[in-house]
Amino acid sequence: MRTVKKGNRKRPKSKPQEDIDRRRDAAKTKITPRDDGELDFFKRRAMFASVVLIVFFAVLVSRLWFLQIQHGEEYRNLADNNRVRYLEIAAPRGNILDSKGREIVTNRPSFNVVWIREGRKLDEQLIKTMAVILDVNVSDLLARVRKMAGAPGHFPIRLAEDIEWNKVAYIENNRMELPGIRIEVVPLRVYHYGNVASHIIGYLGEINKKELQKAEPDVYRGGDMIGKMGLERLREKDLRGEKGRHYMEVNALGFEQRNLKGIDPLPGNDLQLTIDIDMQKAAEDIMMSEGKSGAVVALEVTSGRLLMAASSPVLELDKFIGGISHKNWKAMLENPGHPLLNKIVQGQYPPGSTYKLVTAVAGLAEGVITPETVIYCPGYYKFGNRTYRCWKHSGHGAVNLKRALSESCDVYFYQVGQRLGVNRLASYAKRLGLGKKTGVEMEHEKSGLIPTSEWKMKRYGKTWQEGETLSVAIGQGFDLVTPIQLALMTATVANGGTLYKPSLIEKVRDPDGHILEQFSPTILERFSGQGRNLALVRQGLTEAVNGRHGTGRRARLKNITVAGKTGTAQVVRLKQYKHLKEKDIPYKYRDHAWFTCFAPAENPEIAVSVVVEHGLHGGSGAAPIARAVLEKYFGKRQDDPENVTTVVLPGRLFAETVAPSTSLPTDQTLH
User: Fold this and answer.
1) pLDDT, tens digit, 9 for 90 and up, residues 235-258
2) Crossing angle for the helix pair 483-495 and 531-546, to the nearest 10 degrees
3) Least confident of 17-31, 308-322, 570-584, 637-651
């Protein structure tokens, strides 16, 4: 029998233990290099997932920061805009006052009809109903709607302006049957003196597409009124003010729920002008009552202030209120008097004999004549193969400078001009303010024309002919001036040689009365060293109005000494009308009439220039208008005996009290 040692005997393993050992051995056998690579792969996938998760949350946080912090205010406003709508409230434009503070243009409330579409499509039945209520054509209303087709739905479409009160009441009483129709209250211009100073003031009109593209987007919208001409246009930024806003809360469909706090409009700044409305009215009344076309300008001699500036025919400002009709616009365009033209700065005319002031000053300054130089006038002057006539066919006889200015002798100035030459004449004309823009605050100013030999060669490719200088010397030929230039020249002669820039604005005030801008004289040029010569010219001009044979006698005032010069500007030379009476010459071929003056002659304060288109003679056609302006300026001073002045008239050996009668001799044509 076999025996087993007790110490080496092993206990049999249980079944569960065997399973555990087997699984442990199996796990050990799987840990190989290949199994390590798979583990790294899983680790990388886990890391990538973590990075993606981190980036996702980083983007989410940064986007929240971008929306809520960096652009939070912007998006909050956008959200509010879906809930809150606003309507703009037009600001009252600034007032326009004269030099004494009298109101020329102010505002009044006007009722306009607007349609707020919101999300609605074009409602043809509503448009037809409104056409009946407003008594207008359906096509006109449809045109207004189509014009605003691209605008947001909450922008109002203006269907009618300045409607009558009974229509306002009807629309308000029937609002439930007129969806989207509202009454808009806007300020409208009031012209207290009618059409007086219309070319200075200008007019308003609805902003057009071209203007809207150039305008500030935050300031103007379609349908707004904007200055189209005159100071209304040039001073638009001062006058327009700042719009207000009426805020309202709307529901998801765009209907009003309740009113919110709004912003009141800020009125525009007031303009105080340098003009005197009484003088302005006096000139325009006489021009219009006699059916005359032309311009009248008055300047303060010592500063350049414009005391009045009238262009005739005037603009009918009432026709521009609320927008001018096509019919009225066409009528203005076809008017032979050209009311749309501001003749103060845009009218260019031959200066006629008023240009003799330039020839006289240049002749004295250049030494080609002296006060004692005598030239004989037989009624004509032969130069080359041509005969140049004097306006007085019988001639003036022997004349010196004073008498030549007084009686406007053409022959005298023909010869002075010939001695000077065109270039020297042009130099002095420009120093006196002719041939260049004055810089006055009026749009589209013309520069006129003062010819030189160089100009003719450049313009026509031809050399200057000496005979042309003779015509230029008496203000004919190529010479062209504007009324404001001639007034400026006269003021420069009157004040001793200082050329001022004409000014139209005295002050600009904000709505609280604070002065934002104030006038101060601007000197363009000083005519130095010519004081004595200018004094001699002034003496000749004094004789022209107050002398026995002066051509400007119809400008005389009681107790105030006026000095001036007449001029007749030839429009066209037509031999077939030579033997006709002046009244039988067709209107468009008649000569223009000029008169320019200053007063008082011994201490000048005011200069006045008048041009009457086709008015024939300066003495009869233009001088009485200048006199009316001077009468308004001097007022009671004319009747004050203390203002009677004793003046030694040029060429006289005695003193004469200047207080002439208004009756004039009729045996001499006033040139």
Assistant:
1) 999 999 888 887 777 665 555 666
2) 110
3) 637-651
pLDDT in tens, 113-131: 887 776 556 677 788 888 8
Question: What's 463-516 look like in SS3?
Answer: CCCHHHHHHHHCCCCCCEECHHHHHHHHHHHHHCCEEECCECEEEEECCCCCEE
Q: Pick one of 3.30.1360.120, 3.90.1310.10, 3.40.50.1820, 1.10.10.60 as the CATH number of 85-273.
A: 3.90.1310.10
Distance CA 162, CA 90 (A): 14
Alpha-carbon span 303 to 525, nearest angstrom: 13
pTM for the model stands at 0.76
Q: How far apart are CA 407 and CA 670, in angstroms?
A: 9
- Rounded to 10 deg, the angle between the 410-420 and 356-365 helix axes is 50
Q: Which of 109, 505, 483 is nearest to 287 (CA)?
A: 483
* Residue 668 DSSP symbol: S
Q: Supply the DSSP string of 183-213, one letter for each residue.
A: EEEEEEEEETTTTTTHHHH--EEE--HHHHH
For residue range 493-538, list pLDDT tens digits in order. 999 999 999 999 999 999 999 999 999 999 999 888 888 999 999 9
Conformational region of residue 265, where left means phi above 0, alpha means psi within -120 to 50, and beta covers everything else: beta
Q: Which of the following CATH numbers is that of domain 279-313+340-509+521-657: 3.40.710.10, 3.40.50.10420, 3.50.50.60, 3.40.50.880?
A: 3.40.710.10
**pLDDT for residue 435:** 93
What is the Cα gyration radius of the chain? 43
Whether 253 contacts 281, CB under 8 Å: no
Interatomic CA distance for residues 426 and 433, integer angstroms: 11
Residues 112, 207, 508, 489, CA torsion sign: negative
pLDDT at position 139, please? 80
Of 426, 430, 443, whose CA–CA distance to 492 is shortest? 430
Mean pLDDT (the chain) is 82
From CA 473, how far away is CA 409, in angstroms rounded? 12
Query: What pLDDT score does 19 carry?
Result: 65
- Indicate the helix (H) or strand (E) that contains 270: strand 270-273
Helix and strand numbers (H, E) in the chain are 21, 25
For the chain, the straight-line distance linking the first and the last C-alpha, in angstroms and rounded, comes to: 178
Cα distances from 401 to residues 483, 534, 544, in angstroms, run 25, 12, 12
Q: How confident is the model at residue 548 (pLDDT cuts 50, 70, 90)?
A: confident
Task: Give residue limits of the domains in the chain.
Answer: 85-273, 279-313+340-509+521-657
Output the pLDDT for position 653: 29
